[in-house]
Each structure stands twice: as C-alpha cells, then as structure tokens.
Amino acid sequence: MGAFKINFPDGTRVFDEEFLSVDYIWENGKPVPYMSMSALDDIDNQIEQLKDETKEQAKQVSEKEVEVAEKRVAKKPLRQGKAESQGESKSTSGHYNILGWGMGGLVIILILCIGWFILRNFKRNKDEQS
Using one digit for the tens of pLDDT, what is the confidence trace for 62-112? Predict the structure, then answer.
C-alpha cells in the first residue's frame, strides 16, 4: 500500500516549492535542510571575523573609558586640608543641608504640638477633678 509514500534514496537533493531558496537533502525518509561545506566555512569565517571586530571594539571602548576617567581626575583638585574639604562639602551639598534643617524644624514643631496637646489634656482633667 505504499502508493502515496515517497521513497527517495538517501542523499537525493529535493526542493520545496514554498521555500525555493532553501536546499534539502533526503535522509531517513524525510527532507533535511542542506548546506554545502563551502557555505558552512563562509559562515564560520564570518563568525570569527565578527569575534575579532567585537574584541577590537571592546578594547577601543575600554581605552576611551580610561581616557574619560583620567580627564575627570585631572579636572578635580586634590584635597589638601580640612578647610578645603569643608568648603567643597558646603558648595556640593548645600541643598542637603537645607533639607536637613527643614526636617529638624518640622520635628521640633511636631514635638511642641504633642507637648501642648498633652499639657492641655492634663489641665482639662485636673479642672474636671476639682
């Protein structure tokens, strides 16, 4: 009953009408994509070339990062004394100091409000008992 069964010998080149650009070879009763050794060698060569280019680009990037870091270090003066470091901290973190003082002020106001509330309730309780 093998009237509709395809039976090619292994190694026969076959084609698919939907995918004419892909070559197939018949193996073990089914089509398998086929690539010639020269095509595989070309792909291997391109992969090696891309690896070499990627390594070279990585070296260039790391060299540029070193240059940028050296420029940044060259621009910053070295801290020599305590006065200079305090002066720098004031100029670089002034807005943090303002936030710190603002939060401190809010905490003080909160403590005063809680104290006033406790004293008011204490006074009311004392007046009610008398």
Answer: 777 777 777 777 676 655 555 444 544 444 555 556 667 777 888 888 888
SS3 sequence of 111-123: HHHHHHHHHHHHH
Say which amino acid occupies 16.
D
Q: How far apart (Å, rounded) are the C-alpha atoms in residues 24 and 14?
A: 5
Q: Model pTM?
A: 0.34
In a domain, 128, yes or no: no
Would residue 82 count as lying in a domain?
no
At 19, list the tokens: 């995918």
Instruction: Tell me if 13 sits within 8 A of 25, measured CB to CB.
Output: yes
Identify the bridge partners of residue 14 per DSSP, sorted by sequence position: 24
